[in-house]
Design a protein that fits this description.
The protein has five helices and two strands; from the N terminus they run H-H-H-H-E-E-H. The chain has about 150 residues and is mainly alpha-helical. It has one domain: Four Helix Bundle (Hemerythrin (Met), subunit A), CATH 1.20.120. Strands 1-2 form a two-stranded antiparallel sheet.
């Protein structure tokens, strides 16, 4: 029988394929695309997903060694600087592995631990985990629409 940690990890990795499958097809030009009137480009959304994964690693799962400067969260808007395809892919590769290692380190009881953040108040780690899964898939859907209809 699998542990909660193993099951949650499988769920997150599968849900994240909605994002990672898009990364394989991207071109440098795609990073600039937007779907008007939305202000966010594909490049911004990629960086934002990585920023939030690292924030979750640090603030929700207690990764004290995680270093993150969540530029998209700080700026609260697309500044137009997210145009380096390789750099963005490297960044979300790093954020994935950072969060994966921290998830793998969770014990069974950890998922029931109550955490509090200013973004979403008090939740168990399991409930908070639902936020990172839905966050990535939400923005992956935005990317898919931008890539299909944006310019």
């Amino acid at each position: 029988m699998k542990t909660k940690t193993q099951l949650f990890l499988e769920l997150w990795k599968e849900a994240r394929t909605r994002f990672t499958n898009q990364l394989t097809q991207l071109t440098q030009e795609d990073l600039h695309k937007k779907l008007q009137p939305s202000p966010n480009s594909v490049g911004f959304l990629i960086r934002h997903i990585g920023d939030v994964e690292l924030l979750f690693s640090k603030n929700v799962f207690g990764g004290n060694n995680v270093k993150v400067i969540a530029k998209t969260v700080i700026a609260k808007r697309d500044t137009g600087e997210w145009t380096d395809l390789k750099g963005l892919k490297d960044y979300v590769h790093h954020s994935f592995h950072t969060l994966k290692m921290i998830i793998e380190a969770q014990k069974e009881d950890d998922w029931e631990t109550l955490i509090t953040t200013k973004e979403f108040g008090s939740k168990t780690k399991a409930e908070a985990f639902g936020r990172i899964v839905s966050h990535t898939t939400y923005h992956s859907g935005q990317m898919a629409l931008i890539l299909k209809y944006g310019s």
